[in-house]
What we know:
It is a single chain. By secondary structure, the protein is of the alpha/beta class. The protein has 2 domains: 3-19 and 231-417, Enolpyruvate transferase domain (UDP-n-acetylglucosamine1-carboxyvinyl-transferase, Chain, Alpha-beta prism), CATH 3.65.10; 22-228, UDP-n-acetylglucosamine1-carboxyvinyl-transferase, Chain (Alpha-beta prism), CATH 3.65.10. It has 14 helices and 24 strands. The chain has a 4-stranded mixed sheet with strand order 22-23-1-24, with helices on one face. Strand 20 and strand 21 form a beta hairpin. The structure holds uridine-diphosphate-N-acetylglucosamine.
Amino acid sequence: MDKIVIKGGKKLKGVVAVSGSKNATLPVIAAAILGSSPSTIKNIPLVRDIRTMAKLIGLLGAKSEIKEHTLTIDPAGIKNYEAPYELVKTMRASIYVLGPLLTKYGYAKVSLPGGCAIGARPINLHLMGMKKMGAKIEIAHGFVKATAKKLKGARIVFDKVSVGATINVMLAAVLADGETRLDNVAKEPDVVGAVEFLKLMGAQITGEGTDVITIKGVKKLHGVKDFSVMPDRIEAATLISAAVMTKGAVKITHLIPAQLALFLEKIKEAGVKIKTDKNSVTVFPYKGKLKATDIITAPYPGFPTDVQAQWMALMTLAKGEAVIKEEIWENRFMHVMELTRMGSDIRVDGNMAIIKGVNKLSAANVMASDLRAGAALIIAALAADGVSEVHRIYHIERGYEGLDKKLKSIGANIYIEKDGN
Ligand code: UD1
C-alpha cells in the first residue's frame, strides 16, 4: 500500500490554496438526482469520496462526468433505486441518495452504513424523518427499504443535531406534498450550501443556518448550471494547523474565515499571530511554544469534530496541559495511540483526552485510522525529529486533494511512496 514519507523540521513558507469542500459537494450530488435536467457543479475537490458518489449515482443510472474540477450530472436515466453494500461500506455519505430516490421515485433500497472507526454512525434520525413524512421503512438483510407513493409534509423534531439527517430529510421534503418543518437542524455551512443548490433547482426553503428549516414541497425541480462549491473549511483548518505546527509563515487562500471563527480564536488563544482577510488567513511564525488550549467539539458554529485530531497534534508540543473533549463521536481518539508512538504524552479518559506538551516529537512509522486522524499524523510528522512514514493513506485520499503536493509547495519535505506490488 502507498505511504506518505515526511522528513520533519522544515518550517512551511509560502501561499497555498484550499480546494472545494468534500462535505458540501456530497449532498449537492445527491440533490442533483432530484432534477428533471442536468446539473453542473464547479469547484469540486478531486478526492476519492466524490468519485465514489459519482460511481454510486452512475449505478442508479445517472450519467456523470468529471472534467478538471467540474462535475456534470444527468439524472434522466435513473432506473435503479438501490445503493449496494460494496459502495456504502466505503463511504457512509452514500445514505444521501435515500431521500432523493424515495421522494422522486417512491422507492429506495440502501445498504445500512454500519459502524466505522469513529463510532456507530446510526441513521435512526434519517429514518424517523422519512417515516414522519409517510414512508414505510423496512430493515432486512442489512438494507433499509423505503417506500412511499407520495411523501407528505410533516413537523419533524430532531432530538440530536445531525448534519446527515438534516440534509437527507430536507432532500426528501423538497418534493413532498405540503410543508415540512424541521426543528433542531444542523447549521453547518454544508447544510446551507445544499439549500442554496436546492433553491437554484426551484425548491422553496427558508431558515437554513438557523435551528429551524421550513420547506414547501414543489412538484418538480430542474437542474442547475454553474453552481460552485464552497471552500473546504476542514482542509483550511488542516493547512493552518500544519503551518502553525512548523512555526511557518504561510498564507492560506480561497477559504471563508467566518466559517472557522472558533478555530481561529483558539489558534490566537494558543499564542499564534494570524491575519484574517476576506478570503485568506496568514499565519505568522511565533517564538517559543504554543500555549496549551482546551477545546470541546460541538455542532457548528462550535469547534468542528473534524478538526479535533489536528488540534491534538498541535497540542502535543504545547506548553502545559490541554484538554480535548469529543462530544460528537464516541470513538474518535484512534490517533492517540499513533501520536503516542511519536513521543507525545496523551491520556484518554472516556470522551476526554489530556495532552501534556512534550519538548519534541520523534519520527515514527504510523498508521492513519480515518481521514482526519491521518491529517493529524501528517501534521505531527512535519514537526517530528527525523523521517516518518504514514501508512494507509487511502483514508487521507478520501477527503484531501493532493495534500502531499500542497504541503510540498510550501516547503515540506514530503512525498508519496507508491507500493510497487
Ligand atoms: C458529517 C460529516 C462528518 C462530520 C459529522 C459531524 C459528511 C460526509 N460527514 O457526518 O465529517 O464528522 O458530520 O460534524 O458530511 N446521529 C444519530 N442518529 C442519526 C444520525 C446521527 O444519533 O440518525 C448522531 C451520530 O452518532 C453523531 C452525531 O449524531 O454522534 C452527528 O452525526 P452527523 O452530524 O449525522 O454526522 P454525519 O452527517 O454522518
